[in-house]
Amino acid sequence: MNFRVLAGMPSSETEMVVAARFEELAGADLVSSRLTSTDLINAAGEYSDLDVVLVHRELGPAPVFDTIRDLSHRHPQLAILLVSPSMDPDTFTAAMEAGARGVVPADSGATELETRVAKAAEWSRTLRRHLESASLELPASGVRGRIVTLSGAKGGVGTTTCTVHLAMAAARRDRLVCLVDLDLQAGDLPSYLNLQHRRSITDLVDAADDISPGMLAETLYVDPRGPHVLLAPSTASAARTSPPGPPAAS
Ligand SMILES: Nc1ncnc2c1ncn2[C@@H]1O[C@H](COP(=O)(O)OP(=O)(O)OP(=O)(O)O)[C@@H](O)[C@H]1O
Ligand SMILES: [Mg+2]
Predict the structure, then answer these.
(1) Which one, of 137, 125, 135, 71, lies nearest residue 98 by Cα?
(2) Which class is 3-137 in CATH?
(3) Is 226 in the pocket of ligand 1 (CB under 6 A)?
């Protein structure tokens, strides 16, 4: 996909010049341009998948470095390039400090513009990929997992059967699943999953506040179809050593 660029230019003349330059570029599209700093900031929020924002040194009414700072705070993933008629060190330093990725000469030809836009856009896309994968690890809500509890109103109504099928269906859809048998008196997951495992929830209760990742890995059984399984104690007497808890739920 071509790089997507938004521009803030101080006049219709400069706007036309930049639009004509972009006509010559094969790998970048000028999505839109704006004539004031306020309109530019609003537009940056309206267009999805923008890569680069060009901000002309003379764009007003807000001071240009305030505009850059505002844009970079609101959209840290966007690469902002200051388009400047002068390339002095003070302009460069002020642009960098405000959050720009670089300074492009106002009289750049198509080739230079294309190179600078491409480099800035690649940075933006790399950053967005990292942000997206980080947000997969921890969703914006901050919630890493969800607990679904199934409990039968009375015995023998199919609670364990439903729970096993639900866990398998979720695992098939690439969800991370931990199937926990809280029927401490008569949990019978091993017979449903055809498994033998000597650890159970009792081992974790014994460790109480001191549960390490290693201990958890040892206690959980990993079903070849995906779900991790935390079993109820194999005997009812073992369950009695556990402190009182909620009613059985499997
Ligand atoms: N939809 C269904 N149709 C027919 N039989 C079923 C269905 N669901 C479960 N069963 C059968 O009913 C019996 C009880 O099922 P299950 O063990 O899942 O119930 P439960 O509510 O967990 O029982 P318990 O109170 O013993 O924990 C099992 O033999 C199971 O194969
Ligand atoms: Mg059951």
Answers:
(1) 71
(2) alpha beta
(3) no
- The residue whose CB lies within 8 Å of the most ligand 1 atoms, and thus the one to mutate among 157, 161, 163, is 161
Find out whether the beta carbon of 181 lies less than 6 Å from any atom of ligand 1.
no
What tokens appear for 113 in the block?
A: 């513009």
Give the Cα separation of 170 and 168 in Å (integer).
5
Q: What is the pTM of this model?
A: 0.51
pLDDT tens digits for 180-220? 999 999 999 999 999 988 899 999 988 878 888 888 888 99
243: CB partners within 8 A, 6+ apart: 205
Residue nearest to atom 6 of ligand 1 (CA): 158
Residue of the nearest CA to atom 4 in ligand 1?
Answer: 158
Instruction: Quickly tell me which residue has 């970048």 as its tokens.
Output: 28
Place of tokens 């706007």: 15
Q: How many CB atoms neighbour CB 69 within 10 A?
A: 17
| Domain layout of the chain by residue ranges | 3-137, 159-240
> What is the DSSP annotation of 135-197?
HHHS-TT-----------SSTTSSHHHHHHHHHHHHHHTT---EEE---TTT--HHHHHT---
